[in-house]
C-alpha cells in the first residue's frame, strides 16, 4: 500500500462532507478547509443530472461523460480539484452506479442521456467537447439492453430483491432504473472512474452500495482503479454482527472486497450508548464485540446526509449536545477515518440557536479543536483509563487524553501523571495530581501544557 493510501485508510485524514455545495464554493473555501485541519473533501456526484435545487436529483445520473449539474460543470470541478490540491487537501467524489435517473414522467424509453440531451451535445459541440470526460457524445451512454427488468423493491430484507429491484418512492412511483451487470455498463463506469482519477480525484464514495451485487462491485473496482485511491461504500444497516441487515449486506461486502464502508455498526453502538439506559462501557472496544468495523475499513460519523434528509431515518438524529460528544469520541478514539457532515440547510432542521443545524458545523470552534486533537494524537496507542455508564476516559499515547461525560451532572476525575494539562476546548488548566471537575454533558481534550 502506498504512503498516500496508508494515510487515507488509517485516519489522519478527516473528511469534510460538503454535501450539495457548489464546486466553485468549495474552491473558494479551500484555504479555510485546509486551515481547519481537514485532509479531504467529499463532493456530491460529479456527473450530468437535472439542473434542479432538490439535493436528491444529484443522485439520479443522466450521463457520466460530462459533469453538468446544479453544482457546476467539468470546468468548475477541475478548478476545485486544483484549488484544493494547492493547499494539500484531497478530493473524494460520490459516485452513483446502481441506477440512472427516473425520467418516466418525460418518456417511456431507457436511453441515457435522452435524445434531447444528445441533440444539445451536437448543437453546442464546442462547449460539450470541453466538458467531456470520456467517450463519444454522439451516441447514448446506455440503452434498454443495459437495464434489468423493472419492478419495485418491496421486501428490504430480501437480498436478491434489494440488489435487482428499483428504489422507488412507493407503489405509484416507477422508481430508478437499475443497471444490469454486463460488459458495457462495467466498461462505462470504469472509464468514468479513470477519467476522474486523471483529473486528480483521490477517493470515491459508492452510493447505494447495498443495492449492488458483489459481482458488479468486483468487476468495476479492480486493482488498476483502486490503486492509490480510498474507496468506501454506503451500506446502511441497523447495527453490527448478529443484526439481519449486517449479515445480509455488510458482512459479505467486507469479506469479499477490500473496500471501506460507513461504520453503521459503530454509529448504532454510539446512538445506543447515549440513550437514557445506554452505557459508555459499550464504547470501550466495540470492534471486539462485532459492533464496529475494523480500524482500516471504517468511515466513522455522527450523522450522514441520509439521516436528516429522509423521513425514514429522522429518529436517528442525535440530541444536539450528544452529537457534539459523539464527534469528540470519533475524533478522539483510535480507529476509522472520521467524516464530518455539513450542508446548506438542506433539511430545514434548526439547532437550539435557531440557525440551520449543520450549515456551519464544519467550521464551529469546537469542531476545529476536535480535528486539531485528532491530527495531534493520530497513530498514538489508545488506553482506557476509565469507562463506566456515564464517563469514558481514553489516553492517546503521551500526547493527549479524551474525557467524555454524558451525565446531566458534573463528575470528578483524578488523573495520574507528572505533567500539567490544558483542555483544548475550554482552555482550562489542570495541575498534575489535581482532581478535576468534568462538567455535565461535556468533552475535554487534554494535552500537555
Sketch the major β-sheet: 8 strands, parallel, barrel
Cα-based radius of gyration, to the nearest Å: 23 Å
| CATH class call of the largest domain | Alpha Beta
Q: Which CATH architecture of the largest domain is right?
A: Alpha-Beta Barrel
Q: Which stretches are poorly predicted, pLDDT < 50 over at least 5 residues?
A: none
Order of strands, main sheet, comes to: 1-2-5-6-7-8-9-10
CATH-assigned homologous superfamily of the largest domain: Glycosidases
- Counting helices, strands and paired strands, the structural category is alpha/beta
Instruction: Give the N-to-C terminal Cα separation.
Output: 36 Å
Proportion of beta-strand residues: 15-25%
Plain-language structure description:
- This protein is of the alpha/beta class.
- The protein has 2 domains: 3-379, Glycosidases (TIM Barrel, Alpha-Beta Barrel); 384-448, Immunoglobulin-like (Sandwich), CATH 2.60.40.1180.
- Helices cover 30% and strands 16% of the residues.
- The chain is built from 15 helices and 18 strands.
- It has helices at 3-10, 23-28, 30-35, 74-86, 115-123, 125-131, 159-164, 183-199, 214-220, 223-226, 244-256, 264-273, 306-309, 320-332, 365-377; strands spanning 15-18, 40-43, 68-69, 72-73, 90-95, 203-206, 230-233, 260-262, 298-300, 337-342, 382-387, 391-396, 400-405, 411-413, 421-423, 429-430, 436-438, 442-448.
- The strands form 4 sheets. An 8-stranded parallel beta barrel has the order 1-2-5-6-7-8-9-10, surrounded by 4 helices. A 6-stranded antiparallel sheet has the order 11-12-13-18-15-16. The chain has a two-stranded antiparallel ribbon with strand order 3-4.
- Strand 15 (421-423) and strand 16 form a beta hairpin.
- Helix 5 packs across helix 6 (125-131).
- The chain starts with a helix and ends with a strand.
